[in-house]
Design brief:
Layout lengths: L7 H9 L4 E3 H8 L3 H13 L3 E3 L4 E4 L7 H8 L3 E3 L1 H7 L10 E5 L4 E4 L4 E6 L8 E6 L2 E6 L1 H14 L16 H8 L4 H12 L9
Parallel strand pairs: 5-7
Antiparallel strand pairs: 1-3, 2-3, 4-5, 6-7, 8-9
Helix pairs in contact: 2-3, 5-6, 6-8
């Protein structure tokens, strides 16, 4: 059987127009190649700097135009959304914008840490996986927690990790009081107590109706 020739630079350039990710299984199916051949070829292109390995099956296509982690967070883990410090920063609730994108998911905790992509996924219970919207990115869409949900997720995980919950640096005028209270009631009582005490003592001010 004659060996099929693939111009991998041209192929990756073509693929990059629609998606910054390259998956072995997708290329195998689309170009009717063996997974072993594709895996070997992609490793070679990674060594040349055209790809960056994110997982056993997935690479970041370096020929894509200005991809960001938000372009790929939901491709890597569909049942996830941006939240915690990253969500608070994106909505303007916090001025602290972490390098790694923080997400929550119902699957498993994992971390992707490469020169171009830093994403942390924290596992959350299924009954707390809600309160997010979709935003557009260059290459599609990604899910992000509403600002109130991002704050409550942040408190929830801080308590789980035994970290102090310091609320004095947040811009609460970005949040709805009614939505914050309604959402907080769906969390464990410890989250409600951590939030409501500062509200009653006047430490949380400026909330929208």
């Amino acid at each position: 059987m004659r060996k099929k020739h693939i111009d991998w630079v041209a192929t990756l350039a073509k693929e990059s127009a629609a998606n910054p990710l390259v998956r072995i299984r997708d290329i195998t199916s689309k170009y009717r190649l063996s997974s072993a051949a594709v895996s070997k070829a992609l490793r070679r292109q990674a060594s040349r700097g055209l790809l960056e390995k994110l997982s056993d099956d997935t690479y970041l296509n370096k020929l894509a135009v200005s991809p960001t982690p938000r372009d790929i967070v939901n491709q890597l883990v569909p049942d996830s959304y941006v939240s915690l410090a990253s969500g608070l920063a994106e909505w303007g609730v916090s001025s602290q914008n972490p390098i790694a994108i923080s997400c929550v998911t119902t699957s498993w905790r994992r971390k992707i840490n490469t020169p171009s992509v830093q994403i942390t996924y924290r596992k959350i219970k299924r009954d707390l996986f809600w309160g997010y919207v979709e935003k557009k990115s260059r290459y599609g869409k990604y899910k992000i927690a509403e600002p109130e949900k991002a704050l409550l997720d942040w408190i929830y995980f801080a308590l789980q990790d035994g970290l102090p919950v310091q609320l004095d640096e947040f811009q609460f005028d970005k949040l709805s009081r009614a939505r914050l209270v309604a959402y907080a009631k769906k969390f464990p009582s410890t989250v409600m107590q951590t939030l409501f005490l500062p509200m009653l003592e006047g430490e949380i001010v400026g909330l929208q109706p």
